[in-house]
Amino acid sequence: MGVNCRDADDLMSAVVDGEVVGRALGEFEEHIGRCRSCRVGLELEKITKRTVTKHLQPVAAPQSIVDAILNSIASAQAMRRGQKGRNWHIPVLHTFRPVVLIPAAAALVLAVAAIILFRPEVLRIGRGKASADVLTAAIRNYDSLRLGTAPLEFVSRDPDSVKDFLRGKVDFRANVPILDSYHLVGAGVTSYCGVQCAEVLYRRDMVFVYMLQMNRLEVCRSSTEAVPLPVTASIDRGEWYLGNNGDSSGVVVWVNGEILCFAVAGMDEKVL
Ligand SMILES: [Zn+2]
After folding, report:
1. Centre of ligand 1 from the C-alpha of residue 203, in Å
2. Domains (ranges, CATH) in the chain?
3. How many angstroms separate the alpha carbon of residue 41 from the centre of ligand 1?
4. Could you give the dihedral angle defined by the CA atoms of residues 207, 162, 256 and 251, in that order, rounded to the nearest 10 degrees?
């Protein structure tokens, strides 16, 4: 039996590390020879490893955002418990052409996420390409909250009070996760194309994490262009979508049951 895409994904990291030899390597190479997507994945893995090796020290400093991302990854993992034997697939947005990146270890996810968020020269979103979609809206909301131009409706450090505040204002049970080393700032309700969305803000010093949550079916019904295609493609595959806003913020999109969740995080340039 040959190697399929999933086997190739699983082997990718070990192959780059030179840990795969003999027949397994032969079968892997045979698959890579005929599968463009895995070939791209392998190249990306090599680039990632090189970049990680070169930049791990500089990017290791802003641990806070990395923690926040790992936290959201952990909660999505919990939600996906039951989908057995599936690795995370983290599609990385590169000028709106998503490339599937399959890190072999959580450590690599962490490093990759840190690089994407803090090394914007590595990967960029073509800014302004998606004009009025919900991803852009999430980034704008994050910016206006961060800059203080749109204050939150409800300020509290207590997750239960925040949940109480959101209950009844949105037609789903909003997630208010606890992020290590961050404190909850509060919550608000915003509307996108008539769909009520919950927003939750976290903060550590000048570093913010903004979560936007909405009923996935409703937002897709509201407009065919609400969710950009690369995001839809990723979440339909049960994958994570990870993008960079081209400056100092990054976006992660995932689905939690009926809820479509966006997390935008970034750093003040001075902190950076
Ligand atoms: Zn393949």
Report:
1. 40
2. 62-272 (3.30.200.100)
3. 9
4. -20
